[in-house]
Amino acid sequence: MAFTIFLIIIGFIFVMQSAIPFLLKRTVAFGVTIPEGHTDDPIIALYKKKYAVITFITGLLLLITYFIWAKNSDLSEETIILTGLAIQFAIIFLSMGLYFYFHAKTTRLKRVNQWGLHLKQVRVTDLAIRTKDEMLPSFVYALPMIIAVGLIAYTATQYNSMPDMIPTHWGPNGQADAFSEKTPFSVIALLLILLVMQGMMLAINVFTKQSGIKLNAAKRKTSQVQQLSFRKYTSWFLFMTSVLTTVLFGFLQLTTIHEGLGNRVLMLALPLGFALIILIATAIYAFKVGQGGARIDVAVEDESVTGITDFDEDKYWKVGIFYLNKNDPSIFVEKRFGVGWTINFGNPIGYLIVFGPILLILAITFLL
């Protein structure tokens, strides 16, 4: 089963990585702002094609090699898992290396050709757009947290009847493979981790809701619809992730309290189903919505605006990935390479929201 899971994950990774350049806004290529009038430049298109082809073919060859090797060898599950992880990291590192290479070439191309030199840089602000924002309200994200708190209370009532050894880790086959002695802390550790994750997703929704809505200066109406759709679908995707995580962790907690609740088939099917739903939803979200709503069809005609372009923020994006702008109050900003959000490294609150929960989870794990 571990072999099948890794085949699916490896396939997902190289397909998604190879598709990224085509899921982004046309005004951004490899983390570089491309001014209006140059978004269809054939050299940029060639860079995107080379990145996609190299990543896809390499990933496919690694997947086929992994499949043939594992099927024709008598290997332990540990060897299969470690090799699968190595291949995943290899694909990610390859795509990162290609990104940095084409980022440098795109930056040079823009500088040599002086793109945008004679265009007026404009920042567009629509004060009324916030009233149209359809991101989920924050209280909705609190609902899964209520379930987690309820499970903690229920666990307390069942403490005396729980086994002496509490599962703390489950393998690819769905069976517990690590345990800790029963204590008031260990019996709720899984739920505490769940609460931390739920809190992080709540905070992300709160602060992405407050983040700036950046409109395209030359295509204001189109970008407005795309931006609002992107924010709405991102909010729903994040909430779906929170709900699915709650279901999975809640089920694992209940099987710890009631040992006969989960049979072998169910223990295998639920985590696998969770992973498949997340992967499928991620793919649909990325290909249907795209970064900033770039792939959303908009039946809106924009007035023809020439001689202007979006404000060039390249100086705030380190290698096109890390956003560092102390003057921007936004804590989360749209990624330039990939679909979703990244933190503003110039705002310390972002560090707290992202790295704080990670440290808390590590602390809980360490104390077990």
Task: Describe how the helices and strands are arranged.
Blueprint: H1 2-19, E1 28-29, E2 32-33, H2 42-71, H3 77-113, E3 120-122, H4 138-157, E4 165-170, E5 176-181, H5 189-209, H6 220-257, H7 264-289, E6 308-310, E7 317-318, E8 322-323, E9 332-334, E10 341-343, H8 348-367
Count of helical segments? 8
- Tell me the span between the first and last alpha carbons: 28 Å
- Listing every helix as H and every strand as E from the N terminus to the C terminus, the arrangement reads HEEHHEHEEHHHEEEEEH
Q: How many separate domains make up the residues? A: 2
Radius of gyration, in Å, reads: 23 Å
Shape: globular
Low-confidence stretches: none
The major β-sheet equals: 2 strands, antiparallel
Approximately how much beta-strand content do the residues carry? 5-15%
Q: Can you list the strand order of the major beta sheet? A: 1-2
